[in-house]
Amino acid sequence: MELVVASSVGVLTAGGVYLILRPRAFPVILGLALLSYAVNIFLFSTGRLAVDAPPILSKYGDAAYTDPLPQALVLTAIVISFGMTAVLVMIALGAYLESDHDKVDMTEPEDGGAAEKDRAQ
Amino acid sequence: MNHWIIAPVVLPALLAPLIAFVMRHDIALSRVASFAGTAALFGIALGLALLAADGETLVYRLGDWPAPFGIVLVLDRLSALMVLLTAALALIVLVHAAATGWDERGRHFHPLFQFQLMGICGAFLTGDAFNLFVFFEVLLIASYGLMIHGGGRTRLQAGLQYVVMNLAGSTLFLFALGTLYAVTGTLNIADLAVRVRELPVEEAALLRVAATLLMMVFAIKAALFPVQFWLPGTYANAPAPVAALFAVMTKVGAYAILRIYITAFGPGVAATDGMPGAWLFPAAVVTVAIGAFGVLGARRLMPLIAFSVVGSMGTLMLAISTFTPDAVTAALYYLLHSTMAAAALFLMADVILARRGGDILQAVRATPQNGLFGAMFFAGAIGMAGMPPLSGFLGKLLALDALRASPSVEVAWAVILIGSLLTIVGFARAGSTLFWKSTAVAAETGDGEAPPPSAEANAGPLELAPAMTALATLALLAALAGPVTGYLGETSAQLFDREGYISAVLGPDGEG
């Protein structure tokens, strides 16, 4: 159990870090998604791994339970990262459609033409 | 329990959807509602500052759950001060955005602006580390929208970089919080302070990992080396009023460092003693240098101002990195100053550049109001560079004085002074190109042959007022330096009174 969780966090993080260092926007988005999966699994494990235990205290004296707080944290983190990924995809699409390429790196405008055009709007 | 404490979060949160859904087709109505909301926020922030001025730490328990189990908002002098600064800046920026018509160049400026305020105020008020993450996300997601407001190729590309950088930062934040929870079993800041103190040094390795990860996250927000790369591109390409509002966002990072590394991992905690300062100091030194070289090397005006913001964050962090009450007093004074100075520069740059056309630093035909613009830029530049008589000078003087206690005082002094000199040179060069050489261009070609690139009407009083107000704040900060530093001294004393914070949040016995 520990080995599976730990190695999945490690593999997902490694893949995510590799992908966010790519020059194009789409792999970067995938990389951020992988990183958020990794962090969600990692958060799950922060309350100690317990199998077959309910996230509430039993009133019959059975002390085996799993920590509910990390589950709440993971839920929040999933919702937030889902929303953020959607926003990121929209912004990446916008940048792609405006500039006809999906590179993350910027070319510094030499003549200031773009900035000028923006201001003139 | 005082319900006004949560008002700075609730008010913008209610107002934003109202403007988005009800008033989206009527720009005048949105402006009035947004302005009224921000003015009310300013009033509430003033009230909260008065409430916190007597030195009591007020706690708001959401749902009345006792402290380590429920989420708390904590109002002390520091959080009240930061909320007040945010509200004052927001009011100035909002007037500018409406007067220059920036809010009409894209959709939903005002709702995003209100959500941004909600996130910033929430981050300043919360007493829970995970809640801090949530408010960070709120302010970030609003800032993504504001950053690309108005659209355009370079702005969208810069926006993409900004979002990617901050999403990676958010992931790191979650890793840090997870590690912290695994070690201590709590995320309430006061409860963390108790648990961290009780932790044996032998078991502190994981805690140090969590503390370092958190430091990196806040360093991204505060634009510290080596994660400052997002700031110049973002600030230079964001709409100018948004860049001015973002001046307080870097301060959220500075505030979080103060709150977490003094209240939770305070000085004197065996597990992390001396660690935050040891990391912050070299990072801040390099940040000051990057800011100064950036100002010197910038070929456009907006990146120049953005790099001066980087430099000011470096100076601020140098002062914070000693983690002594005196240094924090100086840092807080400099924080107030640098926020307003950056906002003043961005706002006046917007007014000036709209009439020059393009922000390349080259001499083009002078604008009709060249003298006025030149004077304003001069005032803003001496404020930012730290020359008398504006508050930047006093802020840097206080920081230099407080840094005498630091073991590497020579390095700190040399960096701040040389950095200031380079900043002055950079600003002087930019100003002379923009305003002085431009008059020569006008004399040569001023026979009425070629019309100026953007012959707009002169800047009206309403367009100039926000930048002037921000400049006036700098003068006021300098004039009232005595009372202000007195108050800030009490603020940092309260910040270092960890027992007071813990007993206010968890109850007198420390157990809730």
Main attributes?
heterodimer, A: 121 residues, mainly alpha, Helix Hairpins, 0% strand, elongated, B: 512 residues, 2 domains, two-stranded antiparallel ribbon, 20 helices, 2% strand, globular
Low-confidence stretches of chain B: 446-455
The whole-number mean of residue pLDDT values of chain B reads: 88
* Residue fraction in strands of chain B: under 5%
Nearest-integer average pLDDT of chain A: 82
User: Looking across the biggest beta sheet of chain B, what order are the strands in?
Assistant: 1-2
Largest sheet of chain B: 2 strands, antiparallel
Helical segment count of chain A: 4
Tally of DSSP β-strands of chain B: 2
Helix coverage percent of residues of chain A?
55-70%
What quaternary form is this? heterodimer
The level 1 CATH classification of chain A is Mainly Alpha
Which class of secondary structure composition applies to the elements of chain B?
A: mainly alpha
H/E order of the elements of chain A? HHHH
